[in-house]
């Protein structure tokens, strides 16, 4: 049990929490989507160094559930919110929010939209100016995701998502998320693009190559991202990833003191 060494500030906070002098902050529901393409490459974004959470880290698209993701009904194809709730051990309402957030955040942060005119179709291209205007309106929350889909006559394709993992931010962090991880294949005809916002760089990388870059200190990966990339590096095809059996087990890394040093461990 070696874990990740904690910087001084987090180590001090960890000791305060372990001693019961500081209460952990509550979590927020969130969704993250690993976009895959042939060759088992994944889409990664580098968060701007000015971000309050995970500054400079390479991450998958994702973000917090918007209240409207849970409250507003959308046209839906694929597993129902109740079925997703069973998979992720969540209520139907929370599961609806998670899936909607997964699709919405993926579009906001990559331009990829897992929705189509019908239950068996998917949008072929989202690079026009009108799509960009809608994407920006979703980001600034002036447009609700349900209204976006309804106005365009689109059906959310929950069947294009595969459940992958469940991570909860450690109690020592001051911003905490209860995050469900999904994987999805880049739809035919669509392409990712550098959309800016919270990221200052994007890249398609093979999982093993991203891990090697992290070991060389060229990129920074948070534990959930590193762990997910490690798992994906064991597959030689996208079909293999999609066929993999996944039992969703909640993981919340915790701080422990090892030989006088505070470290973050996942076991």
TrEMBL record:
Cofactor: Mg(2+); Mn(2+)
Ranges where the Nudix hydrolase domain occurs: 26-227
Presence of the UniProt keyword Hydrolase in the record: yes
InterPro entries in the cross-refs: NUDIX_hydrolase-like_dom_sf, NUDIX_hydrolase_dom, NUDT19
CDD domains cross-referenced by the UniProt entry: NUDIX_AcylCoAdiphos_Nudt19 (cd18870)
Domain of life: Bacteria
UniProt cross-references to PROSITE patterns, sorted A to Z: NUDIX (PS51462)
Protein name as catalogued: Nudix hydrolase domain-containing protein
Native source species: Nonomuraea polychroma
